[in-house]
Amino acid sequence: MGVDIELKRLSIEDGVDIYNLLQEIPKDENGFINSANGFSFDEYKEWLVKCDNWANEIGLEDGRVPQIIYWLFVDKRPVGMGKLRTRLTEKLKISGGHCGYGIAPSQRGKGYGTLLLKMIAKEAVALGLDKILLTINIENKSSIKIAINSGGIIEKTEDSRHYIWIGGRL
Predict the structure, then answer these.
(1) CA–CA–CA angle 118, 5, 83 (5° rounding)
(2) In what helix (H) or strand (E) does residue 46 lie, and over which residues does it extend?
(3) 70 with 82: CB under 8 angstroms?
């Protein structure tokens, strides 16, 4: 039998399985920020509402852009999260880019990062973006490999990070 793979968009109805995933993914690792790590379950439920609002351009704070959060499920179990920003500020063009992703440490090394990034890139195309920018720390070899395996091209390297573009050809 094959593996059941699914990309799901964040929902305010997300439950304990997503909460547990967010507690496993580090709070800040290689530039990927998981602000829900360390939250109580009630704080997590409030965070879901805030993130859903931001994705729909409701209540965006100064300097923030719409950001959609996705969960990667493998055999009905969440193993990773990804973020897709639908537009960039000047600051995000330098650090942050359109997309970030994180895989639960217990699920790394299985190809899920590449799978997640490819699926998010397809979502970006569906939303009208012809390419997405990733800014990746040059010491983050795993993430660089994931981006290149997902069709990414290193445009430039400066300030200790690679600027990698993934086009709409996925």
Answers:
(1) 45
(2) helix 41-55
(3) yes
* 128's tokens: 């009208």
What local confidence, expressed as pLDDT, does residue 2 receive? Answer: 79
Res 170 pLDDT > 80:
no
CB 8 within 8 A of CB 73: yes
In angstroms, the CA 122 to CA 117 distance is 9
Residue 118 has a pLDDT of: 95
The number of residues in the chain equals: 170
Q: CB–CB of 168/58 below 8 Å? A: no
Radius of gyration of the chain (CA): 15
Work out the end-to-end distance of the chain between its first and last CA atoms, rounded to an integer number of angstroms: 26
pLDDT average, residue stretch 78-87: 97
Residues 6+ apart with CB under 8 A from 147: 117, 134, 136, 162, 164, 166
Dihedral angle over CA of 41, 92, 130, 72, nearest 10: -20
Q: What is the H or E stretch that residue 99 is in?
A: strand 99-103
Cα angle value 94/112/140 (rounded, 5°):
40
Domains in the chain, CATH or no CATH each: 5-129 (3.40.630.30)
For residue 110, pLDDT beyond 50: yes
Examine the pLDDT at 128 and tell me if it is beyond 70. Answer: yes
